[in-house]
Design brief:
Number of helices: 20
CATH class of the largest domain: Mainly Alpha
Keywords: Cell membrane, Membrane, Transmembrane, Transmembrane helix, Transport
Strand content: 5-15%
Transmembrane segments: 283-306, 318-338, 449-467
Shape: elongated
Main location: membrane
CATH architecture of the largest domain: Orthogonal Bundle
Number of domains: 3
Number of strands: 13
CATH superfamily of the largest domain: MetI-like
Largest sheet: 6 strands, mixed
Membrane topology: Multi-pass membrane protein
Subcellular location: Cell membrane
């Protein structure tokens, strides 16, 4: 009886499948849109949106993985069905409701204009003939565009809020448009801007999902929003970042505790671990990509040297296409374009490696062909006259000589690949450039952080340049 009781208890005490494994959904967010999403002094992502989606998940029994990639990249990833949703201070608009399944509203907002502190711009009428900064894909940008003719200003577009704000502070643009709570928070934490116009319309933020999903995620999110508002969790989250209705007192206090030393070396000490993590990702991307690109480039280059018209045509076409495409366009095509067509998700890291492999492989193929062509033509003729077939002549006679010529180009391509990894920040890879963006989104110290990032790149590239010269010297002597 004891044995049966024990067995009965063991069987019926096991968690049900629903209890055993909570469903995990992936949400993308912006790299910096305080107080909704931003990195704190420990470079951990926090904010109203981050806390809210986790609270909704807890209320509805699912887990949310939130990744900062930038607003534009997040929206494109959602369009390509690479992710489950976007929570990034995303205003609910008719256009977005046509493309995406938008949740119930969770926060009121409205676009406003801000100018440099002390500016002589006091209203929208003063913008006539001036340049205004906007952020890609935002409702505030749409609002600015809609009134552009009325007030007679021109616009310049940025991918992140910090660069947009800095463009105004440096005087390149006289004003910028952004959502009111975000601008209020930025101003309260030290951004030298001032708001010059109240929002003409009040809109609301929502969480965006793919339309036509065959699960109940939208229903869960809507139910979760209702629950966290009803039980007071929502009010606690908002108060945590915005205080009791006021931004300035709460956030100025936070700013002082978060950034005690804003000198160059103080910021370097505070962010060195994060910068090193970004550097590690950059080097990892570079090494994997250069290995893949070298293999592809050598094969395509050799195809271009074969005594076969089809093989040469394939080689020429490959080099022509992938050397001609801008790397940014290629990255977005691989990461968002192909999944949109095929419905198959491509992880950001894989998309980055494929992008670099195709682009750098095309350049590698070009200098492989050049290196082989640089070998005196009489070498091949002599090898063939001795009875060696084309492949053996290429393998034992031409390639050993051509490789000596190519080695400096291989190392130079490694340097180029290292620099090109910075473009992959557009698809959200956490390499060195993306890491810099995230740090700046928190502390707004663009000049100092970009100086650190530039110095890191410069040191690595200098070391690789010395290596290239040393190898070239050893090969030629």
């Amino acid at each position: 009886m004891v044995g049966l009781a024990t067995l009965f208890t063991a069987v019926f005490a096991q968690p049900t499948p629903t209890q055993a494994a909570e469903k995990t959904y992936t949400f993308y967010t912006d790299v910096g849109y305080a107080p909704f999403e931003f990195a704190d002094k420990n470079n951990k992502y926090v904010g109203i949106d981050i806390d809210l989606i986790h609270a909704i998940g807890k209320a509805e029994g699912f887990k949310a993985t939130v990744k900062p990639v930038g607003f534009n990249a997040a929206v494109q990833a959602l369009e390509a069905k690479q992710i489950d949703g976007v929570i990034a201070g995303m205003t609910i608009t008719p256009e977005r409701q046509q493309k995406f399944a938008m949740s119930k509203p969770y926060y009121p907002t409205g676009p406003v204009a801000a100018v440099k502190k002390g500016s002589n711009i006091h209203s929208l009428k003063d913008l006539r003939g001036k340049r205004v900064a906007i952020k890609t894909g935002t409702a505030a940008a749409d609002y600015a565009t809609s009134i552009q003719k009325k007030y007679g200003f021109t616009t310049v577009t940025f991918d992140d809020s910090n660069n947009m704000y800095q463009d105004v502070i440096t005087g390149n643009s006289v004003a910028c448009f952004d959502d009111q709570p975000v601008l209020q928070y930025s101003i309260a934490t030290g951004m030298k801007l001032q708001i010059v116009a109240k929002p003409e319309t009040v809109k609301y933020y929502g969480i965006a999902l793919n339309k036509g999903r065959n699960d109940d995620l939208l229903a869960k999110i809507n139910a979760g929003i209702k629950k966290v508002k009803a039980d007071g969790t929502y009010d606690k989250i908002v108060a945590k970042y915005l205080g009791n209705g006021t931004v300035a007192s709460q956030q100025k206090k936070n700013a002082k505790t978060q950034e005690s030393d804003r000198s160059f070396f103080g910021l370097l000490k505070e962010n060195r671990t994060t910068l090193l993590d970004g550097l590690k990702e950059t080097l990892y991307l570079t090494v994997v990509a250069i290995v893949c690109a070298t293999i592809v480039g050598v094969l395509i280059g050799l195809l271009g040297m074969m005594p076969n018209r089809l093989a040469r045509g394939v080689s020429t076409t490959f080099v022509y296409i992938f050397r001609g495409l801008p790397l940014l366009v290629l990255a977005l095509f691989v990461y968002t374009g192909i999944p949109s067509l095929t419905g198959t998700k491509i992880p950001a890291f894989i998309a980055g490696i494929v992008t670099l492999t195709l682009n750098e492989g095309a350049y590698t193929a070009a200098f492989v062909k050049g290196g082989i062509d640089a070998v005196e033509i009489g070498q091949m003729e002599a090898a063939r006259s001795l009875g060696l077939p084309w492949r053996k002549a290429m393998r034992y006679v031409i390639l050993p000589q051509g490789l000596k010529i190519m080695i400096p180009s291989f190392i130079n391509q490694f340097i180029i690949t290292l620099k090109d990894t910075s473009i992959l920040s557009v698809i959200g890879l956490m390499e060195l450039t993306q890491t810099g963006k995230i740090i700046i989104a928190r502390n707004m110290e663009g000049f100092k952080i970009w100086t650190m990032v530039a110095l890191i790149y410069l040191i690595i590239i200098t070391l690789l340049t010395w290596l290239s010269r040393w190898v070239e010297h050893r090969v030629n002597n």
